C-alpha cells in the first residue's frame, strides 16, 4: 500500500556493532536506504563522497547550519555531522525508507522536531564484551578504548527514550530483530490508515 | 532478557484468514501460545476441550461473568466467548506470550482495561476477495455470506484503533508481517528497560 517513507533512527555506543547491522539490513530490503549525512571529517580509506557521506569543509557546514538546512547536527570528537532537511523530505514524499545511523545528540534533536520516526538503540551484550570488541580493533589506543567505555556508560543510559532496544549478543538474532522492527513499523495503523480507508471506502 | 509475557490481540472480519495466520505464527515461536477462551458454543468436529476452548454451559459462563472472572467477554451469533483474568495473569508472570484471537467487542474491552497489549487487525485484500473466500466455504449459505460481508464493512472501520493493520493479500507476506510484529514488540523499550537497567547498572 502507498505510504510515506519511514525514518529509522539508529544509535549505539561505539563497539555495539551498529554499522555492520545497518549494512546487513540495507542489503535485505530494496526500499530501505542509508541516509547520507554531511560531515567535516576526512574520508577514511574506501569511503566515497555522496555514498558514505557528503564530505564538506567546516565553512560550508557552518553556512548550512546558519541557513537552517539541517534537521539535526552534532559535533563528535571534534568533527561535525548533520542530516539535511531535504534528505528527510525526499524520504517522506517518495515512500523510500531511510536508516539514519546517527549519534544520541542528533537523535534527540530529531525526536524533538519530527513525529513518526522510529528510534532504535543497539546495545552490546555487556561492558566486558564491549571492552573485548574495542580491544580487537587494532586502530584504537588503550586511552581511546578507556574513553569509549566511559562514554558508553553515559550513552547506554540514554537508551530509555528510544522506542526499541536491541541487544547485539548474537549477530543473527540482532539482525532478525532489527529486520522485524523495520517490517512491523511499516504495518503501524497510523502509517497505513489512509490507504486502507481509501481501499475499503471507510471515509 | 527476562520480561513479562506480551499479549497479542488479533481481530479480523470473518474470511480474512485470521485463524490460519494465528496457527502459522504459533508454530513458529516456541514461547507463543494460543490463549484458550471459554465459550458456550458446541464443539465442532475435532475441537478439543482445554486446547481449542473451554466448552462450558451458559449457567457456568454467567456465573463467571457475575464473579468478575473475565478480562473480556462478548456474545457473537448467540454464543458467548470470554478470556479469563487468570489466563492473562499467568502470561504476565511466566513470560509466555499469548495470542488472543478475539472479536472486536472483546478487544475493545481489553484495550480499556489493560495496558501494554498489542492490537493487530487482519484485513482481507478487498471486499471482492472476501466474498470469493466466503463463497469458497461450503459450510455457509448465501444469506450467511451476505450478512458477513455487511458485518465486515462495519468491522473494518474499527481497524483504526488497533496498533497494526496487516493486509492478508499474499499469505506468506502476511505471515512475515505478523511474525515481525511479534518479534519487534518484544524489543520495545518499556518491555526490556528493567532487564537492561539491571545488566548495565543504570540505576
Automatic annotation (TrEMBL), chains A, B:
Annotated SMART domains: GuKc
SUPFAM superfamilies hit by this protein: P-loop containing nucleoside triphosphate hydrolases
First-listed, main subcellular location of the protein, grouped into a coarse class: cytoplasm
EC number(s) given by UniProt: 2.7.4.8
Catalytic activity, as annotated: GMP + ATP = GDP + ADP
Enzyme class of the recorded protein, top EC level: transferase
Protein location: Cytoplasm
GO cellular component terms, A-Z: cytosol
Gene3D superfamilies: Guanylate Kinase phosphate binding domain, P-loop containing nucleotide triphosphate hydrolases
InterPro entries xref list: GK/Ca_channel_bsu, Guanylate_kin-like_dom, Guanylate_kinase, Guanylate_kinase_CS, P-loop_NTPase
Binding-site residues, ATP: 12-19
GO terms assigned for molecular function: ATP binding; GMP kinase activity
The entry's keywords: ATP-binding, Cytoplasm, Kinase, Nucleotide-binding, Transferase
Domain Guanylate kinase-like per the UniProt entry, residue ranges: 5-183
Protein role: Essential for recycling GMP and indirectly, cGMP.
Similarity comment text for this entry: Belongs to the guanylate kinase family.
Protein name in the entry: Guanylate kinase
Organism name: Geobacter hydrogenophilus
Gene from which the chain derives: gmk
Amino acid at each position: 500500500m502507498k505510504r510515506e517513507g519511514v525514518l529509522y533512527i539508529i544509535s549505539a555506543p561505539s563497539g555495539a556493532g551498529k554499522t555492520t547491522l545497518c549494512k546487513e539490513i540495507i542489503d535485505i530490503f530494496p526500499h530501505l536506504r542509508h541516509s547520507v549525512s554531511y560531515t567535516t571529517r576526512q574520508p577514511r580509506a574506501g569511503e566515497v563522497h555522496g555514498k558514505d557521506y557528503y564530505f564538506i569543509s567546516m565553512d560550508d557546514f557552518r553556512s548550512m547550519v546558519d541557513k537552517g538546512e539541517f534537521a539535526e547536527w552534532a559535533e563528535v570528537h571534534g568533527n561535525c555531522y548533520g542530516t539535511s532537511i531535504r534528505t528527510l523530505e525526499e524520504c517522506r514524499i517518495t515512500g523510500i525508507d531511510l536508516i539514519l545511523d546517527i549519534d544520541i545528540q542528533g537523535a534527540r534533536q530529531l525526536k524533538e522536531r519530527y513525529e513518526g520516526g522510529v528510534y532504535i538503540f543497539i546495545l552490546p551484550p555487556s561492558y566486558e564484551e564491549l571492552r573485548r570488541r574495542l580491544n580487537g580493533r587494532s586502530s584504537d589506543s588503550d586511552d581511546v578504548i578507556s574513553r569509549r567505555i566511559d562514554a558508553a556508560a553515559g550513552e547506554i543510559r540514554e537508551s530509555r527514550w528510544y522506542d526499541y532496544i536491541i541487544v547485539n549478543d548474537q549477530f543473527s538474532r540482532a539482525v532478525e530483530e532489527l529486520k522485524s522492527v523495520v517490517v512491523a513499523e511499516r504495518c503501524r495503523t497510523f502509517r497505513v490508515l489512509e490507504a486502507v480507508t481509501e481501499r475499503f471506502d471507510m471515509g
